[in-house]
Amino acid sequence: MVNGQSSKKSPFKLYRTVPINYIQKPMQLKRVKKMLQKLFHSSFDLVFRPVGDQFLVAYLYPVIDMDRMERTVLTPLKEHMQEKESLIQSQNKNQKEQTSTALEAPHINNETQKNQLTNIGYFDQVFTSGVIVYQKKWKNICSEMIKGSVVVFQQQGAEAAVLRLPNFEHRAITEPDSEKQVRGPREGFIEDIGVNMSLLRKKMRSPSLVFEQQTIGNLTETRVVLAYAKGICDPEILQELRDRLSMINIQGVLESGYLEAFIVDHPWTPFPQTENTEKPDKAIAEIMEGRIAILVDGSPNVILVPVVYGQFMQASEDYYENFWYGSALRILRALTFFIALFLPGIYVAITSMHQEMLPTSFALKLAGAREGVPFPAIAEAFFMEIAFEFLREAGIRLPAQIGQAVSIVGALIIGQAAVEAGIVSPVLVVVVALSGIASFVIPSYRLAIAFRLIRFAILLSSGILGLIGITFVALLFLIHLSSMHSFGVPYFEPVAPFKKSHLQDWFYRANWQTKAKKPFNIAINKMRNKVTSETVPFSKKGNYPH
Predict the structure, then answer these.
(1) Is a pLDDT exceeding 50 seen at residue 87?
(2) Distance separating alpha carbons of residues 402 and 415, to the nearest angstrom
(3) Res 6 pLDDT > 70
(4) What residue range is the signal peptide (predicted)?
(5) Residue 298, Ramachandran bin (φ over 0: left; ψ between -120 and 50: alpha; else beta)
(6) Are 312 and 341 in contact (CB under 8 A)?
(7) Cβ–Cβ < 8 Å for 322, 183
(8) Is the peptide bond between 76 and the residue preceding it cis, with omega within 30 degrees of 0?
(9) What long-range pairs does 321-326 form, CB within 8 A, spacing at least 24?
């Protein structure tokens, strides 16, 4: 693996300090060719196209548009060389017919023409289409070639001309499979960072949307772009994010998840500390609330920071429907949260230690259902939970058509077989199925994973201490959530610290006409539909603005 931190020096140190400077140290085209072959280790995709004895064109053919290269680079160079040769032949012919006094003029023209080849900006006269960038350092030249550029060298030249002609294929813009919704845009981010930036620009047509680019990864040199709204985003949070990204020393960044481990405040917690989305409308909505989006080239998942717990229980569709429906959905998710997290543990605690809490008829019914089961309640609960996790992972990893069949048919067959064999009680099958289905209602997949892990801890504590154990574990995680911060923002706000006015976009969704303020202490101004350049001091010690 090449994705861990590396204390070794980069293998590209060879070309970091060697400049292409034909003025101080003139290089021949043969020398340039040997140097590029050495830097790219004679890779078979490195191509050289000499044009006469004055120019050398170098590129990596898999990453450039060959048709455009022929039209915009090779053809103009060849035509330019033909014009020069015709001009020189015409001058030589006229030279013989002139007097000895007039012979000096062509000589001066030839010298001027020769010197013109070494002038900076010479290629601007040759290439009339596209943007030309001049580079002197090997590092920059190799980096541009890898990104899809054609580099033109000239004999005794001062700089190399770089023309960007990338041809990286990318998939079409489609609706993300991980964020399905009934109402709302169907667009989704893809693996091309340029396309993703254009999607954000399309949603937010304002100069307040700012992009900042960094390069992370010693080997991959992955582009990482920060997107935020100037005048809304807190500058201290933005600077903190810049500092954390600048400290990352990693060999490669292949997905946005590589960066999360380096920028979060609490690396050991199971709860997500960054929000991921593949939907441009959701990303822009969070940017307008004062958050920062982190785009990584090659990943359709955009990271959003800072975050609070309530974000993970919300969906974009909550804001597209009537506020009554949106509020009902959030209350439903709160109910499913308790079912997914506590229902198996409560079943184990009641059947093992607190049978007296149940009505007599229900207790007898439950005892009859468990008659003949050879294992204690906690053992059969663990068995069913692990079996359910097997089916869940199998349904995700297998192809879509096969995965659905395995998850549905497998659950039916295993559950029925386990009940008929007397391994588990039918009531427990219902309990595990309800808790599993409830976890699917949670919009955030990463928060659902955290709940699945915590559910096992609650199961264990319920089997040992009963309801007291469940209460103890719940209090531990509640204290943990209340103590967490995300870039200085309290993670469990507005519950801890409690802010009544901020509940309008947490437990329920207020009406748009009364929802005048932005939720949480993230943006530097609190009023919606207003952008300001004024900043409000932000303290990570808890003195955040009200």
Answers:
(1) yes
(2) 19
(3) no
(4) none
(5) left
(6) no
(7) no
(8) no
(9) 321/183, 323/509, 323/510, 323/511, 323/512, 326/508, 326/509
